[in-house]
Design a protein that fits this description.
The chain is of the alpha/beta class and about 375 residues long. Helix content is about 45%, strand content about 15%. Helix 3 links the parallel strand 5 and strand 6 (about 110-115). Helix 2 (about 65-85) packs parallel to helix 3, helix 7 packs across helix 13 and helix 11 packs across helix 14.
C-alpha cells in the first residue's frame, strides 16, 4: 500500500493546434500515462469546453479565430492555464508553444517537447510563406529550435530521423513512433463484400498528392472509386480539384471520427499514401500507412527508399511514383483486378503490425522516458 505522503505525478499536456481527440496526444500518450497511474490533464484550444474522458481532465482555453490569434493570444492563454494547473511535468505538442515551455522552465517546471515534425524542413514547403522567404524562415526557426530545446528537460520525437536530429541538440531524446493500436481497426472484413473502392485518409493538400490522385481516377480502367476522408488545406486548391473530371469518381466524406475512418478502411481494397518527394516526407513514417496495414488492406505508397523498405520488405503493397497519375491508376487497377493478391498483401500488413509496428512497444518507451525524467528531477512516480 502507498503511504499517506504519496501523490500521483501530475502531467500536463499542452496543445494550441490539435483537438482533444488527437490520436497521438490523447488516444495514445495521455491514455497510456493515465493507465500507468499518472494524473493527466490535457490543455486544448478547440472550443468544446471542459470535460473528463477516460480519467483524463480536459481543459479548454477556447478556439482561436485564425492562425495569428492562435500564435499570439491563444499561446498566452495556454501558458496561463498551464501555470495555474501547477503540474510536475509539462509536455508540449506544438512548435509555437516552445516559448511557453521556456517560460515554464523559468518558473522551475519540468518541460518536455514532442517533435511531431521536422519543422525546418516543413517550412520549406509551406504554401502560405512567400517562396523567397522560406529558406530564411526555415534557417531562423532551426537556430531558435536548437537554442530553445537545449534548455528543456527532454525531447520526444515522432520518428527515428527526427530523433537523430534532436540528439545533436539534447541528449535526453527518445523516439516514440506513431504506430497504431491494432484493436482500433477491423481487419476481418470479407473481401467478397468489399466495394470497388480505394481510400485516402488524412489532410488533403497539394504536396500530399491530391491532384495526382484525382487525375488517376480519370485514368483507371476499373470502375473503382476514391473514398476521400479529410479536409482540404486551401479553398483555392479545393475549387481546382473538385472541378477535375476525375472528381466524379470521388466519394467525399470530409473529416471523420475514428469509427468513421475504420468503416472507410474496412470497405476499401487499398489505402493510398502518395505524398510528394519533398524533404519533410522522405524520412517520415506516416501514421496512415500503418493504419492501412492495421486494417488489413494493401498500401499504395510513394516510392521513397524508406517506405519501399517497409512495403516491399513486408510484402504488403505497391510503391509508385507519386507524381505519375498513370502509375497510381495502374496500381489501383491491379489490386482491384487481383483480389487474392490484395487480400494476401493486406494480411501481410496486418501481421507486420501485430509483430512490430504497433503502439505497445512505443508505450513502453514513453513510460520509461517519463520514469527517467521523474527520477532525474526527483519526482515521485507510482509503483
Amino acid at each position: 500500500m502507498l503511504n499517506s505522503t504519496y501523490r500521483a505525478v501530475k502531467v500536463v499536456h499542452l496543445t494550441s493546434v490539435h483537438g482533444r481527440g488527437d490520436t497521438r496526444i490523447f488516444v495514445k500518450q495521455c491514455r497510456t500515462l493515465a493507465d500507468h497511474a499518472y494524473r493527466v490533464t490535457l490543455v486544448v484550444a478547440d472550443g468544446l469546453g471542459e470535460d473528463v474522458l477516460d480519467g483524463i481532465t480536459i481543459t479548454d482555453v477556447g478556439r482561436p479565430q485564425g492562425r495569428l490569434q492562435r500564435m499570439l493570444r491563444t499561446t498566452y492563454q495556454v501558458y496561463r492555464r498551464a501555470l495555474a494547473l501547477d503540474g510536475d511535468i509539462y509536455h508540449l505538442h506544438d512548435p509555437e508553444l516552445i516559448p511557453v515551455g521556456l517560460r515554464l522552465k523559468r518558473m522551475g517546471k519540468v518541460v518536455i517537447f514532442d517533435a511531431h515534425e521536422d519543422v525546418p524542413k516543413q517550412l520549406l514547403n509551406k504554401p502560405y510563406l512567400p517562396t523567397p522567404a522560406r529558406k530564411l524562415v526555415s534557417l531562423a526557426y532551426s537556430q531558435f529550435e536548437q537554442r530553445a530545446c537545449a534548455k528543456l528537460d527532454g525531447i520526444v520525437a515522432a520518428t527515428p530521423s527526427i530523433r537523430d536530429k534532436f540528439l545533436l541538440i539534447h541528449p535526453g531524446t527518445v523516439d516514440v513512433n506513431n504506430y497504431p493500436l491494432p484493436s482500433e481497426f477491423d481487419a476481418s472484413a470479407s473481401w467478397i463484400d468489399k466495394s470497388p473502392e480505394v481510400c485516402y485518409v488524412g489532410g488533403i493538400g497539394a504536396t500530399r498528392g491530391i491532384r495526382q490522385l484525382v487525375q488517376a481516377c480519370e485514368l483507371m480502367r476499373t470502375p473503382t472509386r476514391l473514398s476521400l476522408a479529410g479536409n482540404f488545406s486551401e479553398s483555392k486548391l479545393e475549387s481546382e480539384i473538385t472541378g477535375l473530371p476525375g472528381w466524379q469518381r470521388v466519394i467525399r466524406h470530409g473529416h471523420l471520427d475514428r469509427g468513421g475512418v475504420r468503416r472507410v478502411m474496412a470497405r476499401a481494397v487499398a489505402g493510398l499514401v502518395t505524398l510528394h518527394p519533398i524533404s519533410n516526407y522522405l524520412d517520415a513514417l506516416p501514421v496512415k500507412m500503418f493504419e492501412y496495414m492495421a486494417a488489413g488492406i494493401p498500401v499504395i505508397a510513394s516510392n521513397f527508399p524508406l517506405w519501399q523498405s517497409i512495403i516491399h520488405g513486408e510484402r504488403c503493397g505497391l510503391c509508385v511514383d507519386p507524381l505519375d497519375p498513370q502509375a497510381i491508376a495502374d496500381a489501383i487497377d491491379y489490386l482491384v483486378s487481383h483480389p487474392q493478391v490484395a487480400r494476401e498483401m493486406g494480411a501481410n500488413g496486418r501481421r507486420a503490425i501485430l509483430a512490430s509496428y504497433n503502439w505497445a512497444a512505443q508505450a513502453t518507451r514513453l513510460i520509461d522516458f517519463y520514469g527517467a525524467i521523474a527520477n532525474a528531477k526527483k519526482i515521485r512516480v507510482a509503483a
